Amino acid sequence: MYGKPALGTVLPMAGLTAAPEVLPGIPFARGLQEVAGAGFLLYVSTAIALLSIKLWFRLHGAGDRT
Amino acid sequence: MITELLLWAAISIIVIAGCYNATLFVLSRRRIRRTHGPRRPRLYVFLLACLNEERVLAESLARITGLPAGEFMALVIDDASDDGTAELARAAARATPGRVHLLQRHLPNARRGKGAALNAGIRHLRSSGLLDGHDPHDVIVCVVDADGRLDPHVVQAVDPYFDDPRTGGTQIGVRMYNRDKGLLARLQDMEFVIYGDIFQSARRYIGSVGMGGNGQFMRLAALDTLMGEDGTSPTGPWSDSLTEDLDLGVRLIAGGWTNQHCTTAAVSQQAVLDVRRLVRQRSRWFQGHLQSAGLVPLILREVPTRAAVDLLYHLSSPVLILLTSLLPLSFLVALGGTAVGSVQAGRPLISPLWVLGPYVLSFTAAYAYAFVYARRERGLGLLRAVLLSHVFVFYGYIWFAAGWWGLWRMLTGKRTWLKTART
Questions:
Q1: What pLDDT is recorded for position A2?
Q2: For B358-400, how does the pLDDT look when each residue is reduced to its tens digit (9 = 90+)?
Q3: DSSP string, B202-262
Q4: A interface mutation test: which of B171, B279, B326, B367 has the most A CBs within 10 A?
Q5: I need a labelling partner for B152 at 20 to 30 A (CA). Which of B31, B264, B347, B358 fits?
Q6: Reported confidence tier of residue B352, pLDDT bands at 50, 70, 90
């Protein structure tokens, strides 16, 4: 996708890991980042599952021409 | 503990995407050695699927008929246009006999998407006898958008790639011919140059080059292999996906063909000059990308491992875009909160790291993009390219809006789209 170049160049809230909770809006901002993190862990789990299936196909010589 | 894990997982999205982009940048800088077979004369057929394209078609046809190439023809597939598209094609056919042909489709069978129109074009080429006497291995079909302006040397640039009998398709670069018409057009030009010169170029090493729908050259024999084992598929090589080009590129790789990317020729198209229309266009692409998730089983079964890993990452990038979109929102909320907190505390609570950290994570890639774009656009200069690439980072946020819109349309079962209007 053409948007890929921009994917690694967003403004991440890296400082949130150490941000004080007392500031207004910080809990919400932290929550947004936690949702993104949870989604990414789910993404990684799915990716591992798919790569395992690919490995299985490769080991069993099903269709892989490498 | 779990909170910490989730926060760092979110940052990992950026780190992983950054590592991927950096790796492909390095790969894209390497020279590639191509396998050459014997030179053969080839027939080039340019397919133009047109729906109300009278504003731009004449210029595109003039470019094609003026190509300094040997055997070639253009087939205009008029998808039941309301305007003068068909008449323009007829006029071009009269002016250049044998070079331009017209296939007119009529409702209710027309206007069923670009893939359906292109499939009709392939069927017409077969049934009309235009390809009689030609070996499908030596017929190269090129999809060009109606506003596409091909470089004059495009056939000479692309033809050597097809000397390798394994080459199924070759994608050329894409530029915006109206890139001087404002910042939005310039950023789209930069986007396509970066995609072609970094990502597509690097994917030649991985074996996962994608097809782009405009300036997409394919060997007819390769398209034939996508039509079912008996070659009698009632539809044709293109699917009805909103991103039929992405779909076709993956199926070519799965079919054992090699896709190439040609960096020495380009097709220029019209940039969208309105943000709202641009977001709508990208939403359509995003939704098509989501539809392409159906290709995953095929990739797992048929595509070589290295290319498969890259294609899986590529096809899953919409998920990453949606997840990533939460991060700048989080940043803005936190920044606003900290500003309010600073006023309440009577002293600044924003540490310099708040500026430095996000800048390094967000804009490091901008320097690489500036380097690549400045090489293509010599008159721009490196300094202006660097400034432009910083704006380009923010331009990428368009995908966040487009992504959520595309997801919404997908979830609500909406699949029809109006094409992007020409200006």
A1: 47
A2: 788 788 889 999 999 999 998 899 999 999 999 999 999 999 9
A3: HHHHHT-PPP-SSSEEEEHHHHHTTS-TTS--SS-SS-SSTTHHHHHHHHHHHTTPEEEEE
A4: B326
A5: B31
A6: confident
Please give the structure tokens belonging to residue B398. 């368009």
Q: What is the pLDDT of residue B326?
A: 92
* Number of other residues whose CB lies within 10 A of the CB of residue A39: 20
Tens-place pLDDT, residues B297-337: 999 999 999 999 999 999 999 999 999 999 888 888 888 88
Inter-chain residue contact A7 with B10, CB threshold 8 Å: no
Tokens read off for B315 = 């096809």
Phi, psi of B122 (to 5 degrees): -65, -45
**Considering Cα of A30, then A32, then A38, then A41, what sign does the dihedral take?**
negative
Average pLDDT, chain B: 89
| B43-274 has CATH 3.90.550.10 classification | yes
Note the pLDDT tens digit of each residue in B80-91.
999 899 999 999
DSSP state of B420: P
Cβ atoms within 10 Å, residue B122: 23
Going by C-alpha positions, the residue among B70, B68, B64 that lies closest to residue B93 is: B64
Question: Hey, are the CB atoms on B198 and A5 less than 8 Å from each other?
Answer: yes
Q: Taking the model in full, what pTM does it have?
A: 0.87
The burial of B170, by beta-carbon neighbours within 10 Å (0-12 exposed, 13-18 middle, 19 or more buried), is given as: buried
**Sign of the dihedral through C-alpha B295, B301, B307, B310:** positive
Looking at the DSSP bridge assignments, the partners of residue B269 are B176
User: What single string gives the DSSP state of each residue in A2-39?
Assistant: TTHHHHT-S---GGGGG--TTSTTHHHHHHHHHHHHHH
B313/B304 Cα distance (integer angstroms): 14
Beta bridge partners of B77: B49, B103
Q: What are the sequence ranges of the domains in chain B? A: 43-274, 326-396
- Residue to test with chain A: of B2, B3, B13, most A Cβ within 10 A: B13
Report d(CA B299, CA B254) in Å as an integer.
7
CA atoms within 13 A on the CB side of B161: 27
Residue of A nearest to B367 (CA): A9
pLDDT at B228: 59
User: Do residues B335 and A12 make contact, with C-beta atoms less than 8 angstroms apart?
Assistant: no
- B18 and A39 in contact by Cβ < 8 A? no
Query: What distance in Å separates residue A30's CA from the closest CA in chain B?
Result: 7
Helix axes A26-59, B305-315, angle to 10 degrees: 150
Q: Is the pLDDT of residue A65 over 70?
A: no
Q: What pLDDT was estimated at residue A49?
A: 96
